[in-house]
Design brief:
Length: 944
């Protein structure tokens, strides 16, 4: 195994040839004491991959390692046998238990609170007496077991001192909840080998001080220039800036090409200027009221996103800070979606090239449920991103008036992360060296194991929740301490001066130089690339600057369409298809051959097939997306022999675009936010989220409110996400009827999104194709049907698919004499088929039924064209299944009245309503009531 590692090192230029023996000696020294080698070599050795099949204690077995671990292991085994019943052996066991106790509970004794406000927690497990040891045993030598002390035996006092230094100083490690032994031992080795305090070179520490000076300098400058103005400053948590700097540089050294960051407003401006390289002069202009975007509402400066490129040891890295509203943690799954899209674009399933970083607040991390949902998705097939680096800026006070007893029921705000066995490093924000070490271990762990990791940066907030708030009114004890507490920069500068790393004048000059650059408007981020490599960017150029249009050429060559239709129905002989699914596929073959009318599932699937054929990748997720909630899609075929799956759309052609379809875990909020993030990073994709029932989207209402409906007007952020929301009144009760159409329409303005209610297979086919074929990128909300999936009247032809288009309005399909028509019933969705059946049954040739297939943007011209032939029209009725106070009525009636008056003046006053009476609930829970209401509203449409 040693030969394997040496070979790996020899393959790189700086350790080749005559340097090999020197490097091997260094490595052997590192294995005994990582602090004994220069920090640049320690970093190099820390990041060496393990040989395949090895465990952390196998990391390459030099003769020294072999002596300490193999011979020592053999001696311990022999001693254990010979002294099985001896008192010495019993005490040896107690020593090993003591070591384990420090690993489990040392964090509770650790010095992680800069203000020393943390109430001490009694930890009897760490007392010698708890383990039946006494001071008399301190000079006795004991086996160290797996504790990384650098030697096989040591006096108890030396073991205890090493344990205390490792687990009870400025870093509190929570790692023992991790089940995987390899991960746990790897982490133990990284902390125990250097006593959680590696020796950094003077150059590294000077750089840390410079970044602390930058963090403090920006806050002081803004405080003096804009006193009392909201900025949600970083004072008290300045170590966050050197932490982020180290993460990006170290990740770049691993070969990372993109870093996507999500965070709320605390410290955001500091990150923008000092890490991402936003021009200080631009920030000042925003403080002075400059508009960031010309069209739209815009947003406050501490919600803005940004992107830039920086240089790292591994090359240029693209940084992207996600736009984020004040809903704090909701940005976390958005970041994950954006990262997954970038990884898919780079064909990077392991997550080596794109790193997600989510920055949290302590109270929000503990309190908001989307945090749990985001952790839960971290290792699932549909949403994994190779591990996320979570940073908690822990102010220990939440939102000024809170107390930990009121903000959580757990000891730490980070305890939720244990659900996915993420390691958690609590680190004192006033000890930048400890922060740097925790940061390095965290990024190395993520790169090594591709799992989430949490850094809890325990700090404080020097001012209130915002700069206009006075926190001492509710936090008198905390803020009496903060008032006299030196900053992290001041403490670190003093330490470096005392240790002779630099002089007081040097430390002072750092701050002065930074302020001069700031006042001059110079960029103050290190390693900023002024002429970035644009190949690292997502190219939105083809999709910018397009005005709204409802038209798109969605036609498709008939012969090629039939070839694709046949291909998407092919299932290999080795896949045994379940009986009902086999019937669906057999019917689709008949539809492809023209022997049956096309149903919804066929048309939708063919839309995907044609888009793939035209080069557009597709991603579909939802709780039942593989088969479709109502079993209409069956894009995923499950082999009845062995449970394996086959997806015909993934086998349409060699080299085809990616087709991804996943059944999601039981979440709406995090999943929809993820898909939003994905769609904002993949403009050429069709990205679809399907609700199990339409009303389930209300579990993700914040995503619709803060991102989907308003992201463009607030931030200029385009998005082509498609939401399929099953909607229709079929007697399934209040929770399974309405996708809350009224809510979407209430949010519609400025052509921000599309709300459509297709009623035929051809319509959904062209609607899905239009969403990608057009260069326009707007969210699409589809009120998707349930009973229409198999309705005998809801069919289409191959010709309608090949040569048609999406019609925003469908004129009356009956053979009516236009001059005899006195009444027009307008409707949307499934109720059309009830109305058509009533008219046919009662032979009402005086009434036309017209469908609005798109409710927003409202198709006034198309509706006028559908109605203008009825020259003797006396009344227009809007018929809906939803109650009066819901559905489209209140948000759309003014549009209908305008069109009516275009036909002849005053007709708009004759617009009437037919539907269910106003109701607090979306629908009746009793089938008998549902049936009577449905009968009545259809009758009212023709006779009221």
């Amino acid at each position: 195994m040693q030969e394997g590692i040496m070979e790996l090192m020899w393959r790189t230029s700086h350790v080749s040839g005559g340097n090999a023996h020197y490097v091997e000696a260094l490595y052997e020294q590192y294995l005994v004491d990582p602090n004994a080698v220069p920090d640049e070599w320690r970093n190099y050795f820390d990041q060496l991959p393990r040989p395949e099949g090895s465990t952390s204690h196998d990391v390459p077995l030099s003769p020294i390692r072999d002596q300490f671990y193999q011979l020592g292991k053999s001696r311990r085994s022999t001693q254990a046998v010979s002294a099985a019943d001896s008192g010495e052996n019993k005490k040896q066991v107690k020593v090993l238990q003591l070591i384990n106790a420090y690993r489990f509970r040392g964090h509770q004794k650790a010095d992680i609170d800069p203000l020393d406000l943390r109430s001490p927690v009694p930890v009897p497990d760490l007392d010698l007496s708890f383990h039946q040891l006494t001071n008399a045993d301190l000079d006795t030598e004991f086996q160290t077991g797996s504790f990384f002390l650098g030697k096989d035996k040591a006096p108890l006092k030396e073991i205890v001192q090493a344990l205390d230094e490792t687990y009870c100083r400025s870093i509190g490690c929570e790692i023992m909840h991790i089940v995987d032994t390899e991960e746990k031992r790897w982490l133990q080795q990284r902390f125990e080998s250097v006593r959680s305090k590696p020796k950094f070179s003077p150059e590294v520490r000077k750089h840390v001080l410079e970044r602390l000076s930058a963090a403090e300098g920006l806050e002081n400058y803004l405080a003096s220039k804009y006193p009392g103005t909201k900025r949600f400053g970083l004072e008290g948590g300045e170590s966050f800036i050197p932490m982020m700097d180290e993460i990006i540089q170290r990740a770049g050294g691993y070969g990372t090409k993109e870093v996507v960051i999500g965070m709320a407003h605390r410290g955001r401006l500091n990150l923008l200027v000092n890490i991402l390289g936003k021009s200080p002069s631009e920030l000042i202009e925003e403080f002075d009221g400059k508009k960031v975007i010309e069209r739209g509402s815009g947003d406050v400066k501490y919600h803005q996103g940004f992107s830039s490129n920086v240089m790292t040891p591994g090359g240029e890295v693209h940084l992207a800070l996600a736009f984020n509203p004040s809903h704090l943690e909701i940005v976390a799954p958005v970041v994950e979606g954006s990262v997954r899209a970038r990884q898919d674009r780079r064909d990077d399933p392991a997550g080596d090239k794109v790193l997600p970083i989510n920055v949290h607040g302590d109270a929000a991390f503990a309190g908001q449920g989307v945090v749990m949902e985001t952790f839960q998705m971290s290792q699932t097939r549909a949403y994994k991103t190779g591990g996320t680096l979570h940073i908690v800026i822990n102010n220990q006070v939440g939102f000024t008036t809170s107390h930990p007893d009121d903000t959580r029921s757990t000891e730490y705000c980070t305890d939720i992360a244990k659900m996915v066995q993420a390691p958690i490093f609590h680190v004192n924000g006033d000890d930048p060296d400890a922060v740097l070490h925790a940061t390095q271990v965290a990024i190395d762990y993520r790169q090594q194991f591709k799992r989430d990791v949490v850094i809890d940066l325990v700090c404080y907030r020097r001012r209130g929740h915002n700069e206009a708030d006075e926190p001492s009114g509710t936090q008198p004890m905390m803020y009496s301490k903060i008032k006299n507490h030196p900053s992290a920069r001041a403490l670190y500068a003093k330490r470096l001066v005392e240790e002779g790393v630099l002089s007081e004048d040097d430390a002072k000059a750092m701050g002065e130089t930074y302020r001069e650059d700031l006042m001059a408007g110079n960029h103050v981020a290190n390693a900023l690339v002024k002429e970035p490599n644009t190949e690292l960017f997502v190219d939105w150029g083809p999709y910018l600057g397009h005005e709204w249009t409802g038209d798109a050429d969605t036609t498709f060559d008939m012969k090629r369409m039939q070839q694709l239709a046949a291909k998407m129905c092919e299932v290999p002989d080795g896949v045994q298809v379940q009986r009902q699914v086999a019937k669906i596929y057999e019917d689709r073959r008949k539809m492809q051959a023209g022997g049956m009318g096309l149903n919804w599932g066929f048309a939708e699937t063919l839309a995907y097939a044609t888009l793939l054929d035209q080069g557009h990748p597709i991603r579909i997720t939802g709780q039942d997306s593989g088969r479709g909630t109502f079993s209409h899609r069956h894009a995923v075929v499950h082999n009845q022999k062995d449970g394996s799956t086959y997806v015909p759309l993934q086998h349409m052609a060699d080299g085809q675009p990616r087709f991804t379809i996943h059944d999601s875990f039981l979440s709406e909020e995090a999943v929809l936010a993820f898909e939003y993030g994905y769609s904002t990073t993949a403009p050429n994709h069709l990205v679809v989220w399907e609700a199990q029932f339409g009303d389930f989207f209300n579990g993700a209402q914040v995503v619709v409110d803060q991102f989907i409906s308003s992201g463009e007007t607030k931030w200029g952020r385009l998005c082509g996400l498609t939401m399929l929301l099953p909607h229709g009144y079929e007697g399934q009760g209040p929770e399974h009827s309405s996708a809350r159409l009224e809510r979407f329409l209430q949010m519609c303005a400025e052509h921000n999104m599309q709300v459509c209610v297709p009623t035929t297979p051809a319509q959904i086919y062209h609607l899905l194709r239009r969403q990608v074929i057009r260069p326009l990128r707007k969210p699409l909300v589809v009120m998707s049907p349930k009973s229409l999936l198999r309705h005998k009247e809801a069919t289409s032809t191959l010709e309608e698919l090949a040569h048609g288009k999406f019609h925003m309005v469908l004129a009356d399909q009956g053979k009516l004499d236009a001059e005899k028509v006195k009444r027009v019933v307008l409707c949307a969705g499934k109720v059309y088929y009830d109305l058509a059946a009533y008219r046919s049954e009662h032979e009402r040739e005086d009434t036309a039924v017209v469908r609005l297939e798109q409710l927003y943007p409202f198709p006034k011209e198309e509706l006028y064209e559908a109605l203008k032939g009825y020259t003797n029209l006396e009344q227009i009725v809007w018929c809906q299944e939803e109650p009066l106070n819901q559905g489209a009525w209140y948000q759309s009636q003014h549009h209908m009245r305008v069109v009516a008056d275009m036909l002849h003046n005053g007709l708009g006053r004759e617009l009437k309503f037919a539907g269910r009476p106003a109701s607090a609930a979306p629908a009746a829970g009793y089938m008998s009531v549902h049936v009577e209401q449905q009968r009545q509203l259809v009758d009212d449409a023709f006779n009221a």
